Amino acid sequence: MKRYLVLGSAFAALSAGAAIAQQPAPRMVSQPAPQNQAGTPALPTTQKLFADYIAANKMPGIVGVIGQGDAPAAVIADGKLGDEPGAAATDANSLWRVYSMTKPITAMAAMILIEEGKIKLDQPISDFIPAFKYMKVQVSPDSMTALPATHAITVRQLLTHTAGLGYTIITKGPLLKAYEDAGITPFTADVKSEAQMRLKRPATLEAFANKVATLPLIAEPGTRWSYSIGLDVMGRVIEVASKMPFDRFLQTRIFKPLKMNSTYFTVPQSEVRRLATGYAIVGDNRVPLDPAATSVYLQKPSFPYGGAGLVMSAADYDRFLHMLQNGGTLDGKRILKPATVQLAMSNLLPLGVVYPGSVSATGGTTNAQGFGAGGSVTLYDTPGGPGKGTYSWGGAAGTIAWVDPANKVRATIMVNYLPSDKYPVRAEATKTVYADLAPVLVKR
Q: Which of 10, 82, 57, 54 has the alpha carbon at shortest distance from 277?
């Protein structure tokens, strides 16, 4: 799933200003003997892949947490959190910008409410956000002329990017300008660009959702897959249906029971030592985009972004995936029923809609896929790779995570640089993980 959150003007400005960064990125020595906890079988091929990347100075650091079954996960950590002098070595508890890997978490929060009957999968979202009752659809991408939509946007469509909503990272023409002018920028890049975006961005999730509803759709709801702000709008549906602020709902119903204690919309100052620096790779140079010590993630966001807002550790994301792998329960805490998890990780696309395949900054595989609640779903077994039903997504800064229920395999890979596809970490790590685990996987 490819397409990086170019983060609008931030990355463009960085590229234009690359002349100030003519010095090659400093070479760092690979960390000796990356750690691998007992439990999940050793992963020597994956460990070598990570070590080679660090030895070649392609990134400051990388972490993988890989689990098979209910054995303790393997942790492969190499390199450091940044190029800064004294930067800490990476480990399972290092903090990373996961950007769009926030989307599956928001989607599973919605599934909790679907399970409880407070939301229905095919319910119009205007039942929760009345501003969406009368939407219009663009006549063409090069015009703001719009006609009334003939179908209502539903919860299913928000979860699967089929609502007809846009996204500044892919929308073009006059609608892109309208999104930017309205402040429909639910993400955080760096301190400088954030100050500019806040001048126009709505100050609350409610105001954001209502503003989105004033803009035309790019397609009739339920007719086309297009990456979107659907999971950000879903955050508002969740808080209306639950009668609880969206971020508090996540904390109460997912993070706290799963002991995801290193998951933040705002990183506490006390934890900045664990935060990776975010980079942009411009030519052969690695340029700090969001230095950890002054990170924009130390500031409270305008509102909690359900599509791209979280900073978290690989260990925490592994706990989320482990819960899904186990059918909704982890360490005796049930988040969802098995049938709900199965539904969420099935192909939920509206009839006749096809997921067109991977987009560059969001992870996943290139074999045939459908789309579930907030993430892609493989439709067939991949020989020597992910099994049918593997649920996956990734983030703009190169992260990726997947859970493969058929093989009881899950993996979280953390790096932080743009563009996310500068190096083929995702594809290579997927291959090495399955190669390493091949001896213990069920032959099908």
A: 82
